[in-house]
Amino acid sequence: MYTQAIDLPQGTKDEAARGPRSLKEAEYEAEFDARIARGDFIEPKDWMPEAYRRTLIRQISQHAHSEIVGMLPEGNWITRAPTLKRKAILLAKVQDEGGHGLYLYAAAETLGVSRDEMTEALLSGKAKYSTIFNYPTLTWADIGAIGWLVDGAAIMNQIPLCRCSYGPYARAMIRICKEESFHQRQGYDLLLTMMRGTDEQRALVQDAVNRWWWPSLMMFGPHDSESMHSGDSIKWGIKRISNDDLRQKFVDATVPQAKVLGVTLPDPDLKWNEQRGHWDFGKIDWDEFWAVVNGHGQCNRDRLAARVKAWEDGAWVREAAVAYAAKQAQRERRAA
Ligand SMILES: [Fe+2]
Ligand SMILES: [Fe+2]
Question: Please, where are the H alpha helices in 126-284?
Fold first, then answer.
């Protein structure tokens, strides 16, 4: 998973504060703009505007954090999966998310930020990650709902990123999207299986869909009119489709799937609009969204505490790796 356009003020110096640009810099910038216009990739050693670099660092690191924190709600169910097959699928999915986090941290490192800086930002609560992972997984049906809706929303968000202008990010997204597609399908398959089961199972599925539907729509971030960095991101070829357009695509794709599944999406205003050729849907509770962004979701504290504990428990591994590397270097020096 999951980018989310949580465009927040950075509190870092802006372009104006950096003083006038040199002639050379203006030339580089013109070349950069021309490359973006041609649809070329920008690579790590290429010149890029500072704001482009900062935007990418913010977005890619938020995305990486989301993958890593996103392992927690589902990891919670690995030991309680109902069958060996479902356990193997869930294990593979959660491991994929860990892998996505690692590719993305590596992609962000090519922009000059260190893994330690990113980790510190996450653990101190400074960095954001997708709001969706601050909701609890209460029943086994939640695992299906996450795959279907949360990974489904992530795919909508992430497919356009395979054509993003920054090469390392775009290339990481190609593999990630293939894996997300498996995640979405296993979730849908899980829910279909439960829907063919008992009345109790069907009730669990409906309850999970009721709880995950609105938070999934929030994954696309604020309305375009309130999304601070969207304009620049679109100009730079980082973002290809706006938050509201992606959200609409997701709703349009999901409504027919809900019908096949036999569940009701919890929105009385959901209806087909012949004129627009899209599904109309109700108002998102933005107060809830911002409360979760600002740390007041049901699980914000638990999620961060789990990451801090993992970091502290893993300290001995990092220390051992550093000691081993030092020993190897010493041996090589002696041999030389
Ligand atoms: Fe992922
Ligand atoms: Fe996923």
Answer: 141-145, 152-158, 167-195, 199-218, 230-235, 243-261
